[in-house]
Amino acid sequence: MMKSYIMALDQGTTSSRAIIFDHAGRAAAIAQEEFTQYYPKPGWVEHDPKEIWFCQRSVAEKAIAQAGIGPQQIAAIGITNQRETTVVWDRETGEPVYPAIVWQCRRTADMIDALEPEFCDYIKKTTGLVPDPYFSATKLKWILDHVEGAREKAREGKLLFGTIDTWLIWNLTGGKVFVTDYTNASRTMLFDIHKLCWDKRILDYFDIPYAMLAQVCPSSAVYGKTLTEYFGAPVCIAGAAGDQQAALFGQCCFSAGDVKNTYGTGCFLLMNTGERAVTSHHGLVTTIAASTKNHVEYALEGSVFVAGACIQWLRDEMGMIESSAMSEGVAREVDDTNGVYIVPAFTGLGAPYWDSYARGMVVGVTRGTGRAHFVRAALEAIAYQTYDVLKAMEKDVGICLGRLKVDGGAAANSLLMQFQSDILNVCVEKPACLETTALGAAYLAGLAVGYWDSREEIAANWTLARSFAPSMDQEAVRQKICGWHRAVRAARAWAADDI
Ligand code: ADP
Fold first, then answer.
1. Beta strands in 344-459 (DSSP E)
2. Residue 43 has what pLDDT?
């Protein structure tokens, strides 16, 4: 029998990737292309939806060529994507009516500030989210408010709204299939995560016509086939999930209580909570996890906006290191930060603080402070922010975590991983495959078409590359965390003029 593969399309914030996986979950080919970021005004971020589509198709073609396989050998395609980013396009022509408004874009902050407290509570209860410009709802309203005639056309069913998964599937199927999956829907702030339907009261409030919304499907299901002209033969599209939920699945966090943390530009900590939608009382959001079952499963999520991005800042703006990878060697030149803390609240603080107004802070600087202390403090800040989110999570679910699975670019930093283990007093485990987001999408698609039979089968693919056990004295840990919290208070008080 001809060997077959699964192709994952990983549409991220700065680049599109396509990875071809074999049955053992190993990457047989990887292709990647960056695309343009637009910053038309301070705090605004946009993408060109057509560039995303062309770039995604191009990397898919390249990966197939690189793997030396034919389209018939691809058992299915799974899609994973940057979440919340909002696209509105014309159903007839396929033309976007406006650029994609990206998750990072803060242009709708005033719409969120204007929400009545009672309605905020309703949103939180219904969608599981803390109302924020980060989610799609206000971005979609902004497009309907600002593009001439858009709302009228949307009412007539002439315009469609989608997150990036929907946009890609619609294009791949030549406009035949208009769907999204539960995980992506749960990030729009328009979706009732308990009743599993678009919420009428929220749609009415934002004046969003129902006619422009996609059908919501499970994350592991056959949605349709790609047009023959794209890859030479039709290929079945059988999975979709937002990037963080895909990573949770790719890490094989299938049981309630399983947790993963992704260390990328930001940090995203997700805990599978099974069939229970846990409401957070400590600043986290409730979201739908990717599932292969008929019912949905939930996750608790804490998003830290600036993690690896702080290391990039040291590289690009401060000129302290030449590459992100170099941060480890520089930080190892010293044993500790010598009392220095960096709070990288460049765009405010995300979970569990949700403080849009906090700003970055460096404290504890003395005449003896050097570059290495500074770099070490930036790495430690990533671990401290994760600590805050994880402690909030433990309080919400009432359990103490035993281990943490990690992935993402900065998980390559062993000093950071060891410090994370010390600060949390848990075992940190890094898998051999760090492409967990793409792998999760591949697993979802492969399970839908019977390429893999069960979760147990794919869980056997998960292999440990390295683990880090806590080794720091717990009194020293306590003092360090105490210092971190004082630094956070300073960063928040500074912005609030409350010193
Ligand atoms: P994303 O998917 O969010 O673009 P990645 O998972 O590719 O992010 O990780 C890239 C981020 O990780 C960058 O912000 C970079 O600064 C950081 N990073 C990469 N390697 C290291 C390292 N060895 N030490 C610390 N940070 C790193």
1. 361-363, 403-407, 427-431
2. 79
Distance CA 376, CA 371 (A): 9
What does each C-alpha distance from 448 to 78, 132, 218, 462 come to in angstroms?
A: 10, 34, 10, 19
Mutational test site, ligand 1, from 17, 19, 311, max ligand atoms within 8 Å of CB? 311
Question: Cα-flanking dihedrals φ and ψ of residue 451, to 5°?
Answer: -65, -40
Instruction: State the pLDDT at residue 479.
Output: 96
Nearest to 249 by CA among 272, 217, 273: 272
User: With contact defined as beta carbons under 8 Å apart, do 123 and 133 qualify?
Assistant: no
Q: How far is the CA of 154 from the centre of ligand 1 (A)?
A: 39
Question: What integer pLDDT is reported at residue 2 of this predicted model?
Answer: 63
Closest to 489 in 3D by CA, of 379, 370, 361: 361
The predicted structure's pLDDT at residue 109: 87
The angle formed by the CA atoms of residues 105, 107 and 112, to the nearest 5 degrees, is 105
**Residue 406 main-chain phi, psi, to 5 deg:** -125, 155
pLDDT for position 347: 80
What is the three-state SS of 23-66? CCCCEEEEEEEECCCECCCCCCCEECHHHHHHHHHHHHHHHHHH
Question: What's the CA angle centered on 453, arms 250 and 57, to 5 degrees?
Answer: 55
Q: What are phi and psi of 411, to 5 degrees?
A: -70, -10
Q: Are strands 74-81 and 5-11 parallel, antiparallel or unpaired?
A: parallel
Regions of the chain with pLDDT less than 50: 1
Strand partners, 297: 289
pTM for this prediction: 0.91
The string of DSSP codes covering 73-103 is GEEEEEEEE-SS-BEEEETTT--BSSPEEPT
Q: How far is the CA of 321 from the centre of ligand 1 (A)?
A: 14
Ligand 1 centroid to Cα of residue 268, in Å, is: 13
The Cα 15–Cα 33 span in angstroms is: 5
Q: Residue 416 has what pLDDT?
A: 98
**Token digits for 205?**
């409030």
Residue nearest atom 25 of ligand 1, based on CA coordinates: 410
3-state secondary structure of 475: helix
Nearest CA to ligand 1 atom 23: 325
pLDDT digits (tens, 9 = 90+) for 192-221: 999 999 999 999 999 999 999 999 999 999
Dihedral in degrees, nearest 10, Cα atoms 225, 231, 232, 235: -30
Q: With pLDDT > 70 as the criterion, what percentage of the chain qualifies?
A: 99
Residue-level pLDDT at 1:
46
- For the segment 150-208, what is each residue's pLDDT rounded down to a tens digit? 999 999 999 999 999 999 999 999 999 999 999 999 999 999 999 999 999 999 999 99
SS3 call for 368: coil
* Residue 450, amino acid: G
Cβ neighbours, 10 Å, residue 439: 33
